[in-house]
Design goal:
Elements lengths: L2 E3 L4 E6 L3 E7 L6 E10 L3 H12 L5 E9 L5 E6 L8 H12 L6 E7 L15 E8 H14 L1 E8 H14 L7 E6 L4 E7 L2 E8 L7 H8 L4 H8 L10 H4 L1 H18 L5 E4 L8 H10 L2 E2 L4 H8 L1 E3 L13 H7 L11
Parallel strand pairs: 1-5, 2-5, 4-15, 5-9, 10-13, 13-14
Antiparallel strand pairs: 2-3, 3-4, 6-8, 7-8, 10-11, 11-12
């Protein structure tokens, strides 16, 4: 029998395509202090459980209770318009979800959030006119839960990392003077999820069937490598400067982004002025700079000290502020309380 260890401390973790980010905190609820952070490689699964257990202070055979942000490959976070009255009819929602997402609803766990404030939609709260459809295939969620348990983490809450990151970015924009609509990209291996957000919520969501795997054949061709596997190893090795080759690698992606940006700006009359690429590892950070240069927009600058203060989060003596860069935004967003304020009527 395995025991669940809590000790009154908080463990927050994010598992993305590239790494495992973990923070140990004074509590699960704000105000809290981040006592320690660490990034783990996913390449050596055999040692990962021992290293995670050592970091969280749990014994062999015990689980560390954790709040978890995850990125299932088949996840969906899609903005849609609803008829609030018709949405109370289950068949209306099923038909809408099936037609927009083009998925087998029986295979997915789905939920609705308000596109403007991230509040739960449905039930007594009713339905908003603009909503986010969020979810993932049940098999992928189960596989992620099994992997977390195998590692020694017991998820008391499992959240889509995409949703947490979008909430954190929107909160940053609320505190940014003269904030501009921001293009948010999740560049994955097979797909890039595209969002446009502003301080009032999520305006656009769109998947683009182009990711880092699509860049590998271009690398092979441009560098004259013998096969795609050699190109893939070089791409992720952090031993080659891809800055010069970058525009060629993202040309197709940028073309799709330009179409989305142009449509948004014509429809809204607003100019997209910032870019943020979610959970990119440092060895692929050049992607964000390359895309921002080609789109002629600046990279979103986050004042972490001010943002953490607004969230009620402080850093412990062993955590240096400059050790937290944009890579950690999604994980820190898991710690925040973005619950919309409700006006109470007497």
């Amino acid at each position: 029998m395995r025991m669940i260890s809590s000790k009154g401390k908080g463990i927050f973790l994010e598992v993305n395509e590239h790494s495992l980010l973990v923070a140990r905190t004074s509590s699960f609820n704000t105000p809290l202090t981040i006592e320690s952070v660490r990034e783990f490689s996913l390449e050596d699964r055999e040692t990962l459980a021992d290293e995670f257990r050592q970091f969280t202070g749990t014994r062999q055979g015990s689980f560390a209770v954790a709040r978890c942000g995850v990125f299932p490959a088949g996840r969906v976070v899609s903005r849609t318009s609803l008829d609030p009255k018709k949405a109370r009819d289950g068949s209306y929602l099923q038909d809408l979800l099936a037609s927009q997402l083009k998925i087998d609803l029986k295979e997915f766990l789905l939920y609705l959030l308000g596109a403007s404030d991230g509040s739960d939609a449905g039930g007594e709260a009713g339905f908003p006119k603009e909503a986010l459809i969020c979810g993932a295939p049940q098999t992928e969620i189960q596989s992620i839960q099994d992997s977390l348990l195998e590692m020694g983490a017991f998820p008391d809450r499992l959240e889509l990392g995409t949703v947490a990151s979008l909430g954190g970015i929107i909160e940053c924009l609320k505190n940014q003077e003269g904030s501009l609509p921001t293009l948010v990209l999740e560049i994955g291996a097979e797909m890039t999820n595209v969002f446009v957000v502003n301080k009032d919520g999520v305006d656009i969501s769109r998947p683009v069937a182009y990711g880092t795997s699509s860049m590998v054949p271009v690398i092979q061709k441009e560098l004259g490598l013998k096969d795609e596997e050699s190109a893939r190893r070089l791409f992720y090795s952090n031993s080659f400067d891809f800055t010069g080759l970058g525009p060629q690698l993202v040309k197709k992606l940028v073309r799709e982004l330009q179409a989305s940006v142009g449509f948004y700006e014509v429809q809204t009359g607003q100019t997209i002025g910032q870019l943020y690429c979610s959970h990119l590892p440092s060895k692929l950070s050049w992607l964000q700079k390359t895309v921002s240069d080609m789109l002629a927009v600046k990279v979103l600058a986050i004042d972490f000290q001010a943002w953490l203060g607004d969230l009620g989060i402080t850093l412990g003596s062993t955590v240096e502020e400059n050790s937290l860069d944009e890579t950690w935004l999604g994980l820190i967003s898991l710690m925040g309380d973005f619950t919309p304020e409700v006006d109470e009527k007497n």
